[in-house]
């Protein structure tokens, strides 16, 4: 199978994540070395440098992945980061004897089709998000995803429907929805779920 070409660098946690992606993605894939990124000044400097035109963050959806993502978001300009989120799927990677602490699959355990769907907005050579109208915080308020008593539960339902981690913050969910769906697709999802 021909590999998909992604010109933006992709940040993953470990070598097994990198190996899994390298099988079908032609991109500059950088590993954080897990939590070692917190103290590795050279790796941090490298990531800052290669992020000058944008960077894709693809970490696991467990607690460790969230900590690494948060750290990287703190050292990089926000307008250069494209956060992609894998769904929370119960299971264990085939190379491991037992499941992770969270009991969910990481990037290395994801089906290829899941990763390809996440990377789709970046495969056309321009690395631009979908060109349709953007989903905004006003849409989230109007659709009762923020600012209402049941907004947290509504976001959880939407995340579940979209195979996204169910505890995403409103801002993270907004970014993910704009990366994965056009405005009309988003509105159709809202109508399908909540109307």
In words, what does this structure look like?
By secondary structure, the chain is an alpha/beta fold. It has helices at residues 15-22, 41-50, 63-75, 112-119, 137-142, 151-161, 170-180, 183-194, and strands at 4-5, 10-12, 25-26, 29-31, 55-59, 81-85. The protein has two domains: 4-122, Dna Topoisomerase Vi A Subunit, Chain: A, domain 2 (3-Layer(aba) Sandwich), CATH 3.40.1360.10; 137-194, no CATH class. It is built from eight helices and six strands. α6 (151-161) crosses α8 (183-194). The protein is globular. The protein starts with a strand and ends with a helix. Mean pLDDT is 88; it is low at 126-131.
What is the helical fraction, as a range of percent?
40-55%
**CATH topology name of the largest domain:** Dna Topoisomerase Vi A Subunit, Chain: A, domain 2
Shape: globular
**Rg calc:** 17 Å
Strand order across the largest sheet: 4-2-5-6
CATH class of the largest domain: Alpha Beta
| Biggest sheet overview | 4 strands, parallel
